[in-house]
Amino acid sequence: MIRFCRAFVLAFLAASLFSFSAAAEQSMISLYDLTAPDAVLKLPAELKEISGITVTEDGDIFGHDDEKGTVYQLDPVHGGIVKRFYLFEKRWFGNDPVIGDFEDIAVAGSRFYLVTSAGVLYSFYEGKDREKVHATRHETFLNDLFDVEGLCFDVDTNTLLLACKEYPAAFSYKELFLGGKQSKMKKKPVYSFLLDKGILEKEPRFFLSAKKLKKKSPEKKFKPSAIVRHPQSGTFFILASKGRLLVETSPEGKVIGTVPLPAGDHPQPEGIAFMKDNVMLISNEGVGRRATLLRYSPKSGKRTP
To answer: Distance between CA 209 and CA 147 in Å, rounded?
Structure first.
């Protein structure tokens, strides 16, 4: 009887773990029809080079300039600018405007974060319209060779995830002469910045295989340009401007879904975010026209396993 109970308990636990694992890897990407956006909002000329976007707990949408530390709140209905505020950092001789090659923005609680292509993070609080806001600089071991493009907050681990276009760490002496260039192109790392310690973990949280993903791309390319956590499933959506592809992964980095992005709607997709009701937002830099913000509501129905 004891053996039977033990066997029953073990079988129950195994089934529960399998069920949990399957649910955790269930794809949400099939709920979004990328060929039929709910709305296409044309953004003001001032936001022609909009890069990343993020959504606060209150449902407010924010984006940022490409080269200056200017943050904009966007009207979710018309795409206009609700307000803008400017980032400054303390220097030896006073305060200077924050300038850099900014690639993405994220919000964790009440604190915002901006990341540059060289992996420098700036943290700050929301400002009033045209207010000058102090930003704190956080250095990491990343640099321009990694070409950091994506940033998002993962509430489950209290970390910021930094998605990179390149992986120069693959350039060991051996690889430099035995296919180092190919190694670099095959791996796209995603790093974790620990918010409680203020440091970037040395090893990537996971890698994305460009070799495999470019086969799914209509352009036969894959270089991440943004990353965001889905609020319902906890999976990650990774946007690739070069490759025009949307990828969903498990929290561990396993690819569980891909969808190509229509070129007509997404000439240069650079930012992605989710509203509380799981509505997905994708921003595009202006390429010969005004920048855009597209909105997609999830369809009802069964998700793709």
So the answer is: 16
The torsion angle over the Cα atoms of residues 197, 98, 242 and 179, rounded to 10 degrees, is -60
115: three-class secondary structure by DSSP: strand
Q: Residue 272: beta bridge partners?
A: 282
Looking at residue 22, the DSSP 8-state letter turns out to be: H
Give the DSSP per-residue string, 24-89: HT---GGG--TTS-SEEEEPPGGGTT---EEE-TT--EEEE-SSB-EEEEE-TTT--EEEEEEEEE
- List, as one string, the DSSP characters of 144-203: TTT-EEEEEEETTTTEEEEEES--GGG--HHHHHTTHHHHHHHEEEEEEEETTTTEE-SS
pLDDT above 70 for 211: yes
Are residues 154 and 161 in contact, defined by beta-carbon separation less than 8 angstroms?
A: yes
E strand or H helix at 12: helix 2-24
Fold of the CATH domain 27-296: Neuraminidase (2.120.10)
Q: pLDDT tens, 56-92?
A: 999 999 999 888 899 999 999 999 999 999 999 987 6
Domain ranges of the chain: 27-296
- Token pair in block for residue 79: 């795409």
Whether 276 has a pLDDT exceeding 70, the answer reads yes
The pLDDT assigned to 137 comes to 95
| pLDDT in the model for residue 303 | 42
Q: Are 252 and 265 in contact (CB under 8 A)?
A: no
Please tell me the pTM assigned to this model: 0.86
Instruction: Determine contact, residues 209/174, Cβ cutoff 8 Å.
Output: no
Q: Encoding tokens for residue 64?
A: 């940022």
Neighbours of 22 (CB within 10 A): 10
